[in-house]
Amino acid sequence: MYDRFGDMLAMLLGDSAVHIGMFVPHGKHQRVADLVALADHAQDRQTDHLIDTIGLAPDGHLLDIGCGTGDPAVRLARRSGGRVTGVTVSKRHLDRCVEAARTAGLADRVTFAYGNAMELAYGDGSFDAAWAIDCFPHLADRAAALREAYRVLRPGGYFLFTDFALRGSPSEEQVDAYTQLWCSPAPTSFATLLSEVGPAGFEVTEIRNMSSNAALTAELMCTLYKDRRAEIEERFGAEATAHTDPLMDPFRTFCRDHVDYYLTLVRKPETAG
Ligand SMILES: C[S@@+](CC[C@H](N)C(=O)[O-])C[C@H]1O[C@@H](n2cnc3c(N)ncnc32)[C@H](O)[C@@H]1O
User: Fold this and answer.
1) What is the per-residue pLDDT across 171-217, written as a single tens digit (0 to 9) for each?
2) How confident is the model at residue 33 (pLDDT cuts 50, 70, 90)?
3) Does residue 115 surpass a pLDDT of 80?
4) Which end of the chain has fewer CB atoms within 10 angstroms, the N or the C?
5) Residue whose CA is closest, atom 27 of ligand 1?
6) Residue 18 C-alpha to ligand 1 middle, in angstroms?
């Protein structure tokens, strides 16, 4: 999906990251030129919030699971002084990631590799911290990814992940629009998500409900899709817009009425072997 439609997503979300933007709390007021700039600004604010939450030390090394375009990894390395290794299954994004680190002059501290969240190619205890920003919604087996994150962390290391959770009873049409547009299985309940954290070995440290940010991001994406539809059709073809047009509205109402969005911070116990 990111290989084929990463550029289209950037037209709807901004291109400073590929995650939910932070609109609430809105923080310091900043004027922006248009809705794309607003989306970019909200994504940067969310990245900064996650950087503050994970608190990587200057001598720390974080694994970025599902690293997108590499911009959050670069931002984290710049602000913390630490090292970041990013993995993704999008070969197309990988080139962009490497370029982002090079352009920032951080290629010695920020590196990227092709890698699957459910089967990480790193040894036990390799990282001081890890995060997975909006990667878990895509996974067929989240429990396996939680076990892998636990395995590659050192004892005492923190893991931050964000995920969607299902609220209420959506229609089949709404679920179908979400699974097609987001190339993801339908979200589980938050209780199911939490029930997978303990068996992986983690202690829960903090949970933040950021659901209004997911709903607002979806509204913004749908507005930008309508505004930029002609441009999208020109770049991606009439087949792409014909496929996407009927999905947008049920996707928007699904996100507004049936999707919660949580930030979860967990820790591998100090005593873990
Ligand atoms: C919504 S994007 C988030 C990107 C980035 N974390 C950010 O915050 O901008 C989801 C990311 O997860 C990656 N992804 C999806 N399935 C994956 C898997 N099985 N293993 C590793 N990465 C995966 C995608 O390639 C994409 O980079």
Assistant:
1) 999 999 999 988 899 999 999 999 999 999 999 999 999 999 999 99
2) confident
3) yes
4) C
5) 68
6) 8
Q: Which residues of 254-263 are buried (b: 16+ CB within 10 A; e: fewer)?
A: bbbebbbbbb
Q: Ligand 1, from 69, 97, 135: best to mutate by most atoms within 8 Å of Cβ?
A: 135
Kindly give the distance from the C-alpha atom of residue 69 to the centroid of ligand 1, in angstroms, as a whole number.
9
13 Cβ below 6 A of ligand 1: no
CA R_g for the chain: 18
Whether pTM exceeds 0.70: yes
Residue 127 to residues 144, 171, 247, Cα–Cα distance (Å): 18, 42, 40
Look at residue 183 in the predicted model and tell me its pLDDT: 86
Q: How many Å lie between the centroid of ligand 1 and the Cα of residue 136?
A: 8
Separation of CA 66 and ligand 1 centre (Å): 3
